[in-house]
Amino acid sequence: MSWSTEIYDGVTVLVGAERGAYPYSNSLLVRGRTASLVVDPSLSLAEEAPEADLVLVSHAHEDHIAGLGRYDVPVRAHGGDLAALRSREVMVAGLGLPAEAATETDRMLREQFHITGRPEATAFTDGEVFDLGGRTVTVVHLPGHTPGHCGFLVEPDGFLFVADIDLTSFGPYYGDLHSSLPDFEASLRKCREIEARWYGTSHQKGVTEGAAAFRERLDRYAQVVERRDATLLALLREPRTVEEIAAHRLVYRPHVEGPHVRPVERRTAAQHLDRLLAAGLVTDVGDGRYRAR
């Protein structure tokens, strides 16, 4: 078995290998008197997984659904990510990769993550409640990372799973084709207002106890976005194009390589430019170049 368990009243966190670091992630098992469900069956569940009556998917990224093949039960996700969950081809297209890289990524998703698509999956909506008998799981839509990214609030335990709002030092990721920085920031504000006893993430930070500690970590996480703004403004002391900004990197460290790096950096730079232009901190000087005011 490549996962371990941590128990928080009626919620069992299935901690993925390597503390849930990618390509693994953390999953949840929630049991009530009449039914049980699993949230985000990860790669760690691909060979052995607990039984459940239902699977909920926080969002359609490979590290959150690699264990879906273990389940012949209903699968639900937010409508914003449903097409990608149903089709591996749609999932790959949403990454916005060059053609050759998209072909290699499709092979990786098939061979390493066992992604085949779940065409029978159906949608849930923000605020939808799943009653397991004495225990409920409520959908909390938290878009930005993906359009359909969601968290789940388990009551009466007071456990909020925030998925890939993962509180890591890497910071918020909004580099896919359909990601949104404004939506991500709105989701951070939404999380901050939810009172819970425990806050669980998909990756290395695991579970935080108490709203005050969670909000402190959430604020540090959000500050990564501010640092990216500051880095960009410093770069734009001289006029630069989006491609030139992407080459300097706002997201990945210099040693990180791969065909995904430049598209992610380009999309991230463009979103930060949009907000700085709107704030009057950057000006368009023509020929595709921008400069700090």
Topology:
Layout: E1 4-8, E2 11-15, E3 27-31, E4 36-39, E5 54-57, E6 75-78, H1 79-86, H2 88-93, H3 99-111, E7 122-124, E8 129-131, E9 136-141, E10 150-155, E11 159-163, H4 181-192, E12 198-201, E13 207-209, H5 211-235, H6 242-248, H7 261-278, E14 282-286, E15 289-292
Helix pairs in contact: 5-7, 6-7
Q: What's this entry about, in short?
A:
The protein has 293 residues and is α/β, with parallel strands linked by helices.
Radius of gyration: 19 Å
Ends apart, CA distance between termini:
56 Å
The side-by-side strand order for the widest beta sheet comes to: 1-2-3-4-5-6-7
Question: Count the helices. How many?
Answer: 7
User: Roughly how much helix do the residues carry, as a percent range?
Assistant: 25-40%
Global outline: globular
Low-confidence stretches: none
Return the string of H and E elements.
EEEEEEHHHEEEEEHEEHHHEE
Kindly state the number of beta strands: 15
Give the quaternary arrangement of the chains: single chain
Task: Give a short account of the largest sheet.
Answer: 7 strands, mixed
Structural class: alpha/beta
Strand content: 15-25%
